TrEMBL record:
Record SUPFAM superfamilies: Nucleotidylyl transferase
Binding-site residues for ATP, renumbered to this chain: K48, P49, S50, G56, N57, G184, E185, D186, I223, K232, M233, S234, K235, S236
Gene coding for it: trpS
Origin superkingdom: Bacteria
Subcellular location: Cytoplasm
EC code: 6.1.1.2
Catalytic activity: tRNA(Trp) + L-tryptophan + ATP = L-tryptophyl-tRNA(Trp) + AMP + diphosphate + H(+)
Protein name in the entry: Tryptophan--tRNA ligase
Functional note: Catalyzes the attachment of tryptophan to tRNA(Trp).
Any Pfam family the entry gives: tRNA-synt_1b
Any single Gene Ontology cellular-component annotation: cytosol
Residues reported to bind L-tryptophan: D172
Length: 369
């Protein structure tokens, strides 16, 4: 995946992020190989299917994935191993997994242009995850925000899996030598830890991992709760008033937007510090419509919040309606299983190569294969 130098059969090689295809041709001159086409950078990301996907997931991640699949070698995985760091009802988890894949596809991900797979289908993730555990320090994991927040809230019975999941996340990224990892501002810490682990490993054992870069979208990276715009839109919103789901009834979605918490300024402007509710609605509308925030602000100058919210609701509901129609076509088709089967084969081929390289570097593997 990252600069494989082995010549495949004749002069064709395995391009990063895909199965062997024509496209990366090497000219062999004097025992050296020179590439005559530039390989695309690798981007990897995943979403935990721990509940219905939200509008925040869509704007902050899925929508960008659709765009990125034409610009990068795109790998998208459903992070089902990360789900079980806390208890999940097995029946509910199975449903969420299927829904997540169907929604990925309904939102525009194309299995012909992106590799889509279940994390648990590629066993190398967990294997490398343990190796990452052995190359990380307790102090680093103690500083991870999610764990610190739960401890600060007095939560007990936290699982070891929750504590060490940043190491598995590092393995998810490093096993494919991802160049970029699209994340929200609140997730950059995980990519920074991944970079630290990769650099430490490379210093100990020699150059092995590519050092990934976080990619934070300029607009929509973090959609906030409609009921409390100081917090991220989350499936855990109590009463669900602040969260819109991709499969939500359109009337319900519209009602939530019309009831969104704003302020008493009576002026539509982008001021996240003083008018976080309005700023959040502007971000949502801009992200979905493609219209610049400045243009939207100008259009609603002197108009009331009710009219503005109604316009936001129109844009949101139109997008939800389109996604839901496609979802209903996919959910009971064979496309889901076909996509995951094909994606697992592609991903496993790449992951097994990297894991074997890692094992040889640290002395776990000595056999010739």
């Amino acid at each position: 995946m990252s600069g494989f130098s082995d010549v495949w059969k004749t002069s064709w090689v395995v391009p990063r992020g895909s199965v062997p295809v024509i496209g990366a041709f090497f000219i062999i001159l004097g025992g050296e190989m020179m590439e005559n086409t530039e390989k695309r950078k690798v981007m990897l990301s995943g979403i935990k299917p721990s509940g219905q996907l939200t509008l925040g997931n869509y704007i902050g991640a899925l929508r960008n994935f659709v765009k990125y699949q034409d610009e990068y070698e795109m790998l998208v995985f459903i992070a089902n191993l990360h789900c079980i760091t806390v208890y999940q009802d097995p029946k509910e988890l199975k449903k969420n997994l299927k829904d997540a894949v169907a929604l990925y596809l309904a939102c525009g991900l194309d299995p012909q242009r992106a590799t889509i797979f279940l994390q648990s289908d590629v066993k190398e993730h967990a294997q490398l995850g343990f190796i990452m555990n052995c190359n990380s320090y307790q102090g680093e994991l103690n500083r991870m925000t999610q764990y610190k927040d739960k401890v600060a809230k007095g939560e007990t019975n936290l699982t070891v899996g929750l504590y060490t999941y940043p190491c598995l996340m590092a393995a998810d990224i490093l096993i494919y030598d991802a160049d970029y990892v699209p994340v929200g501002e609140d997730q950059k810490q995980h990519v920074e830890l991944t970079r630290d682990i990769a650099n430490r490993f490379n210093n100990r054992y020699g150059e092995t991992f590519r050092i990934p870069e976080p990619l934070v979208p300029k607009v929509g990276a973090r959609i906030m709760s409609l009921s409390d715009p100081s917090k991220k839109m989350s499936k855990s919103d109590k009463g669900d008033k602040g969260c819109i789901y991709l499969l939500e009834d359109l009337k319900s979605a519209r009602k939530k937007i019309m009831s969104a918490v704003t302020d008493n300024e009576a002026c539509v402007r982008f001021d996240p510090e003083n008018q976080p509710g309005i700023a959040n609605l502007l971000t949502i509308m801009s992200s979905l419509s493609g219209e610049a925030i400045e243009t939207i602000v100008e259009r609603f100058a002197g108009k009331g919040y009710g009219e503005f919210k109604s316009a936001v609701a129109d844009v949101v509901c139109a997008e939800l309606e389109r996604i839901q129609a496609r979802y209903n076509e996919i959910i009971n088709s064979t496309l889901i299983e076909e996509t995951l089967a094909e994606g697992a084969v592609k991903a496993q081929r790449l992951a097994s190569r990297k894991l074997e390289k890692v094992q040889r570097k640290i002395g776990l593997e000595f056999r010739k294969r």
